[in-house]
Amino acid sequence: MAMVELLTTELVVPAEETPAGAVWLSNLDLAARRGYTPTVYFYRTNNQPEFFEADAVKDSLARALVAFYPLAGRLGLDAATGRVQIDCTGEGAVFVTARSEYALDELLNEFVPCDEMRNLLVPATPAPNPPCPLLFAQVTRLRCGGVVLGLAVHHSVVDARSAAHFVETWASIARGGGGDAPLPPCFDHRLLSARPPATRAVLYDHPEYKLEPAPEHAVAAGSTYASAIITLSESQVSALKARCTGASTFRAVVALVWQCACRARSLPANAETRLFSMVDMRARLAPPLPPGYFGNAVIRTSALATVGEVVGNPVGYAARRALAATSQGDDYARSLVDYLEGVDAMNLPRSGISRAHLRAISWMGMSLHDSEFGWGAPVFMGPALMYYSGFVYVMQAPGKEGAVALALSLEPESMPEFRKVFAEEVARLHTI
Fold this sequence. Notes:
Helix content is 27%, strand content 23%. By secondary structure, the protein is of the alpha+beta class.
């Protein structure tokens, strides 16, 4: 594996004076994984001298931080309550430049989300506890002239959609779109406050936020995993959706992954398997959150079935079960926020998941075109690592209209069989 040489590390502060004070964080922010989410964007050179020139990138970042000023602050604590918050100090985001002997095509051939790639392409981050920076960025120039933009954003302050909102604004400014955010961010996290005690109502169980009983086959966070990136063509996605009547692309793809993972893991038919998911509640609340809501507005959900039910039925069955994990509305979200008010939301169980389970996350709404900084859209965007086995991200495949890319992690002993079973099932889509 080629190495990366770090060249410079500095703080980029907002280009103008920004508001001070603190941003209150909601229970959904506190319940998010306490840590940084590392992502990578790969760009092919357009052979222009100014291609990802460091000063231009830093200048556009500084201007983006004017509108998104909390990202230039630090994670802090409320002095009276000890509750985690954002201190809007304006100290800046960490910006790193680096170079590597990789060529872009070599990197694309080798890349899978893993610790080694994260360490090469995304800045090192401190312990994710107050006080710590919230945004790290690294521009790594490759041997061929291409560039990798690696980001690490603190999950306590953003979910995937908010992170994409920031990157899209930064890219728009870099393209010459001025200093204003195309969609102004909203930092009013009290829109997701718990209801007053007299009207608080926990109407659902919310097992996804509770410590799971010790499973027979536990997989600890940070344990060894094998990861892969697998692409489904537009015609394969269409054929799959035809077998999952009414299912979205995300649910249909996840249903097939769930089936194949159960088979590859050689689980007994009577074992319980849970499909965990994350649901963006912005448009599902009543009233909906503002379009530019900037924070964590996703909730963990899940669907439970036996392995026999998942593998013994057509894939449409698993898609219907997946629907049960992704169809919650306002009453469910408000119940969860009220539930979190009554527990220690900052110290919820955040371990790995059982070897029988799967955690699926949709990044389908993250447009590659919107991450174009003026020198061409990225040829790949995805997570830089997986946290443990059983993770799957569903994303748009770059440069292929209607195609889908999966970033997947499984136990090392299960991955070869998964690849085999998955390829067989995809081949059968057009033959049945």
